[in-house]
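User: Predict the structure for this protein chain, please.
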Amino acid sequence: MYDHNEKAGNQGDVVKHTALLAAADAMITASSGDFHYADTFAGYAFNPLQSTGEWRYGIGKLWQSGSTCDNVNVTFWRDLWNCKPGLLGSVYPGSSLFIFKLCMSNKRNFRARLWDTSPAVIKQLMETYDKQQVTIYPRPARADDFTDCKPDLLLIDPPGLRSPYPGLAELLCFFDVVPNAILWFPRTAQGRGTPAPETEPSKKAKRECLLRGLSVTSVRWSNGIRTCGCRLAYNLPNAAAADALRSAVDEVVRLMKWDSIVEHE
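Assistant: Here is the predicted structure, written as structure tokens:
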């Protein structure tokens, strides 16, 4: 079974969580009352940073650089995991905990519905959150879960998704019922060249998202093969939220010193 503890804080998390926080912050600023968050693949509330973890290529690289920035969303994200004595042995928050802390900082009540199928994840989520604030479902999420109850923001972050993206059409169905949603998925490459060419299934997945009328932000952090980057497909009717998402991604790409150009479509 997939375990995100090994990947927590990696390059994909750097992109995903800064984008998520930026969009959520703009939406919170433009609204009032409780903030309702939903996550179809919630994962752990927090992840221990292990000696062999992929965080070394994500937040570890940024931590070592000591770079600073003026983007408030990126700074807030960084403050939540930065451990000045060193990252090894500390923890990296999961998506739901990032939003929980964002609500706290804005003095807003956090309400959430979280889905996952891992017994270990479910146990930790139940120990972390107040059941009066968060409802946890130990099963896969379905589009009809949102027919009558729509969150302010939905994250769709399928674990271990690999090209040729089985089930992408099913994931895109969530956009039919939730007006504010973000989908994260990997970008893959294979073959010779610098950079190695992107695989056809990877490009096809982007086209499918664009054909559904979604905005797509593409990031590439490696010239090599396999998982060379990631994409965010999103529908955010709040223009400020979409702009904030794109600005946050642009800033982390600069801070991480990735050579690729970020594509916003």
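The mean pLDDT is 94.
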